[in-house]
Automatic annotation (TrEMBL), chains A, B, C:
Entry-linked Gene3D superfamilies: 3.40.1190.20
E.C. code: 2.7.1.50
Organism encoding this protein: Rhodococcus chondri
Role summary: Catalyzes the phosphorylation of the hydroxyl group of 4-methyl-5-beta-hydroxyethylthiazole (THZ).
GO molecular function: hydroxyethylthiazole kinase activity
Pathway where this protein functions: Cofactor biosynthesis; thiamine diphosphate biosynthesis; 4-methyl-5-(2-phosphoethyl)-thiazole from 5-(2-hydroxyethyl)-4-methylthiazole: step 1/1
Protein name, as recorded: Hydroxyethylthiazole kinase
Similarity annotation: Belongs to the Thz kinase family.
Top-rank taxon: Bacteria
Length: 283, 283, 283
């Protein structure tokens, strides 16, 4: 039986409408590789973005943002301090925030940063399977930004991380999402689709993290917000692949598709399927 | 009566010719979101760019640049020191420089930085209406990088900033520009056109600031340089919108159009109109 | 007589096959202007990339990378320390690494950084002619990132740098490459083609440096790796120019072409020619 809190197509379509109607403001603290593309993804999808990652302003701005993204792609001592300030402020003010643990596992310094940030209870965690596994302390070698594990292998780790976050996703050819509800139950969602071109364009994963922060600002539950972002990306990338002939034209078509996707397209193309993560993990 | 120093189409066409003939070298100190796109905008339009934002080199390089852009988008302690060094050096050496006060108003630390930088008398200031209002100390909440105010509402603030700068512009659906002449008079210019897609692509405003620095290097007056950059962008974005189907393809077409626009196109498409800012402000 | 170690078309085609088969992981320490485009170039061409430029992780990661790129485009005190850590670690662990001396010559602080990094013996050095001349201590004013000298004028300097590196290239309308063999001999290669659009798109040179690091990870000799990267870029940019109408669409078509170029296309379009650098220099 599908968990009653599992997002439905109606939930995802309503979230898309809410995103377009409310244009939530994301505060991104992301890496220098993805900063431009992530902002363009947010603007194309229907949100807005301000990249505020200095320690003097990160905390104060987080209290006013619709959602906050903290991405560990290219940290240094200065931005690491800003991460902490933003996470603490978001947590204290009840602002939803997303942790994207880029490179956690293979890189020890940021692995420690990520563990510290969990104290501030991210609303959602989004990463590749190997990063989710490493963040949960279950081993896994991330080999930088690649994802060596199939996303399904990360389900037990994603469930374990639900002690620190309300919803967790592991990206891969198929994405796996899990979320807690208020009664101790857990809902799971599998999202297929997407495009084989996504790994050929940098920052598609990082910008998905930003889009999660935007959807968390408008969605009724963290898992719906997380699922809405994953689905928006999966549908847009599928359309983009049909309109491109390589990674350069794919990235352009992807931004166009994020902008043009409407709820009818979302409903007809989304490939979501509930699964029962707890039972699977425990049996 | 139009102020005798108000830029004309002839002035703007001559500035475009000068840009292409001289390929001025801009030194940009800009944010990590816009650094790549801004450089591509400058190269496409006909200038060149070097992003020198460390404190060891920023001042020395500013003395050799054609124009300098200081953009407050993602400052940290290191780049803030470089901003001061570059502004001071440009001021001392008579190199035109542009202040783009991104996020000033809502973000207190950078608001202080911007106030300090005014001491070095920017040749031009370019911002969204809310940023111009905030920089002039007239209130206004910038809500990050969005522009909540219509640009026209910023005219009194832009005029007030002419005590610190030679020319000031407020960007919006219609841009408003003001500039001082040598006799205490003030000229105003309204520039329409552009594209509703501009706010859907990040760094279009920041890169306009870079283009202002390039035009200041070749234009006979600051107001002509400022107006030439705004017009080049307005015309190119209008063409780009005709050749695109979303923000991704718009950004690509925009770079192409910045490159291909010639003086004939500029003359036929530019929508400039003089206005009388002082009278309007005082009456 | 062609030096027996001069790369042939067979060598370059084999290197392209090896790149695609092995997907080498590059560690980039590059500037904030090029970080995104460089990563997209590597992903499109067939490699992968992780931008690890903090001092806490740069050295440790370099020991595990396939190749390392150190690009001096936008250094600060933090990344400069990471450059040293990465170069030292790569040198100690026998990992090939590339030095891209952006802006060396005109900018004194980074000129000192580059001189220090030569101690760790880069496998390859890639720069514009003026940068290669300056790095060899033979004068030359780099005027930022532009290349004021024809690349051929840099040949004596490139040869002089072979005391510090195994292979050196100077980029220009025609690229000149030199490399040492194990017997004290020197091979030279001239690579024509490319596109006049390359200087109109930022980071095409910087991303070539990243691609050199990728090819060094899979090629049998440094000069073959260096030549394979230059040739891949020259052929892809030639194709891109045929499919574009300005710098925006050129950049998109360039990424597509880097992805689609195969060994047949490489063989039919590559314009390589051996030259005898030592004899030319000494006579």
């Amino acid at each position: 039986m599908t968990h009653p809190n599992t997002p439905t197509l109606d939930d995802l379509a309503a979230a898309l409408d809410a995103l377009r109607a409310q244009t939530p403001l994301v505060q991104s603290l992301t890496n220098i590789v993805s900063a431009n593309f992530l902002t363009n993804v947010l603007l194309a999808a229907g949100a807005s973005n301000a990249h505020i990652d200095n320690v003097h302003e990160a905390g104060g701005f987080a209290r006013l943002a619709g959602g906050v993204l903290i991405n560990l792609g290219t940290p240094d001592d200065g931005t690491a301090a800003a991460f902490t300030a933003a996470a603490e402020a978001a947590h204290d003010a009840g602002i939803p925030w997303v942790l994207d643990p880029v490179g956690v596992g293979g890189l020890p310094w940021r692995t420690g940063l990520a563990a510290d940030l969990l104290k501030y209870r991210p609303t959602a965690i989004r990463g590749n399977a190997s990063e989710i596994i490493a963040l949960a302390g279950r081993g896994g070698d991330t080999r930088g930004v690649d994802s060596a594990d199939e996303a399904a292998a990360a389900i037990p780790s994603a469930l374990a991380l639900l002690t620190h976050a309300d919803a967790v996703s592991a990206s891969g050819p198929v994405d796996y999402l899990v979320g807690r509800d208020g009664n101790g139950g857990v809902a799971g969602l599998r999202i297929a689709g997407g495009s084989a071109m996504l790994p050929r364009v940098t920052s598609t994963g990082c910008s998905l993290g930003g889009l999660v922060a935007a959807y968390l600002a408008v969605a009724p539950t963290p898992l719906i917000g997380l699922a809405a972002a994953h689905t928006h990306v999966a549908v847009a990338s599928e359309i983009a692949e049909e309109n491109s002939s390589g990674p350069g034209s794919f990235a352009v078509a992807y931004l166009d598709a994020l902008f043009t996707v409407d709820t009818d397209t979302l409903r007809s193309r989304a490939r979501i399927e509930a699964f029962h993560p707890v039972e699977k993990d425990e049996n």
